[in-house]
Design brief:
This protein is an alpha+beta fold and 546 residues long. The chain is rod-shaped.
Amino acid sequence: MRIPRPRSLAGQLFAMQVVLVAAIVAGCALFAYLTDRSQAEETARLQSRATATAVARSPSVIAAARSANPTELLQPYAEGLRKDAGVAFIVIMAPDGTRWTHPEPGNIGKKYLGSIDEALRGKIHSEKHLGTLGPSVRTVAPVHDNGKIIGLVSSGITIQKISEQVSKQVAGLLGVAGAALALGGTGTYVINARLRRHTHGMNAAELSRLHDYHEAALHAVREGLLMLDGRRRIALVNDGARELLGLGDDVVGRPVDSLGLPAPLTGALLASEPRVDEVHLTPDRVIVVNTSPVVGGEQRGTVVTLRDHTELQALSGELDSERGFTQALRSQAHEAANRLHTVVSLIELGRADEAVDFATAELELAQVLTDRVVGAVGEPVLAALLLGKAAQANESGVELVLAADSRIDDGVLPRSLPARDLVTILGNLIDNAVDAAAEAATGRGGDAPGPTAVRPRRARVVVTARADHDELLLRVADTGAGVDPADADEVFRRGWSTHGAGRGLGLALVRQAAHRSRGTVRLSEGPDGGAEFTVRLPLRPAEVRA
């Protein structure tokens, strides 16, 4: 046996609304019927009272009541008045209840069926009673002559006539009720058809389950997800996006340009055209941004996905450093082979003393920097970085010098200062300095003169690495052309470079890594006229320093 599928949410609402509209219409119809019937009976009572009172006060009735044959005078009068007044009967009787008139002549002379006691006491009395014409609403009024009751007048309207009047009103009411029900049902169907399109025919349980899946997926996905509405406000944000962008819990409904994000990132989020795998920097992270505009009805929004590129960028930097080390070792191996051939050739020529002097001089030149770095920098990662960068600089014709006041003992750097960030900071600064010094020495800078105006200056990069009690100082100065003071703030912006497109990320990463460690980066003019970058990183948390 196949279990019927639960009706869709739109179908359930449609059935509920139809039942509700039908119940309301039926209730209104019943209330109107009872009200109309009550009003019809009250109208009949007032009409019968007015007719009976008018007849009882008529002089012709009083005169006929005193005559010897009242029926002969009153019967034509009563029947004519009954038809004109629209009542069922007008009965004029003697004080003892004997009828003088009646719509059915056969009942003349018989006793009146109803209460006449109140009328005999001089009061006008109305009641519902079963008479010869059926149930009726009737009124009995006394006929006075000089203070004496000489007769009684009864006027009434049958319940059947009242029911006929109410039936006509109810028929019209039912027509209106039917039209209201049809109109309400049509409106309900149209509304629910639209609701069915929006809910895709799903029932309440399916919608609830879909919402649960939606919430679970949003919280489980590590990538950031943002949805912007047509007015570029945050419509939806998951936990990953909050973490990547550093957003709080109250961002839903806020415009993107009020979140305090970097200007390039804000521009990417507000752009109307799609963005694919754009790299943007926040104060702490490198993120890859993809945007896709969506159109739904008249509302235009944007779906934004964010991926954390920080770790990958750091690994890429380390890979570049390792690649540089490999190239430097390959070059050193090539140079060592050339020097070895030279030594062998000197020995073969019988010049052993010159061979020894040549080999010793080469060893001393290579050993000086190694001893200086190893003796001053106890941190193995920084020592290895400096030795590798020195070899790379030598290949570019640049001398890398470690300042005399450099000193970092092993174990001084805390775990809160990752070695990866130090490699990012010092490696990028040295690479930029070596490039600048080499270009200035050969006259190939962006602001340098042409190749014929080679300047006879020695290319050199001076590195200072010093750890004081509470601070790590990293300073890199070069003999390059320097940086225009007007560009002092722009050099740290992603994409700024004097080497053309595709460059300009290194200094932005330096500032980001320094920011993560609560440090600072400053650009100034070096002692040799080139650029000098100074990075200061705290070695202790702020509360400990305080």
